[in-house]
Amino acid sequence: ASAHMTSQGSGKWSAAGGKLTLCMDAVAAKGSAQIKLPNGTTMNVPMPETKPSVSTMSYNCSGDALSTEQPMPNNTSMTTTYSRAQ
């Protein structure tokens, strides 16, 4: 399977106790996933609608970069790195 999603959001960030929290006020996203079935056909599945939420994650700052690690289902995590705009 492969997926592509584009999103924009607004909200507030806060940090305390080694955790970073994002409180989203608004979010808009679009995208789809393509799943290749055992018979060779490909099924296109639209991404579900995204709603504002609160997310808490660990973070690390180094130089001009901020990296976050957010827990995901099934004992996995998602790491995102933000770089300072030039």
Describe this structure in words.
This protein has 86 residues and is mostly beta strands. Helices cover 0% and strands 73% of the residues. It contains no helices and 6 strands. Strands 1, 2, 3, 4, 5 and 6 form a 6-stranded antiparallel β-sheet that branches. It is elongated and about 50 Å long. The mean pLDDT is 88.
Layout of helices and strands, plus pairs?
Blueprint: E1 2-16, E2 19-36, E3 42-46, E4 54-62, E5 65-72, E6 76-83
Antiparallel strand pairs: 1-2, 2-3, 2-4, 4-5, 5-6
Task: Give me some keywords for this one.
single chain, 86 residues, mainly beta, six-stranded antiparallel β-sheet, elongated
Shape, principal axes of CA atoms: elongated
Let me know the largest β-sheet. 6 strands, antiparallel
As a percent range, the share of strand residues is over 45%
Structural class: mainly beta
Question: Can I get a quick summary?
Answer:
The chain is mainly beta.
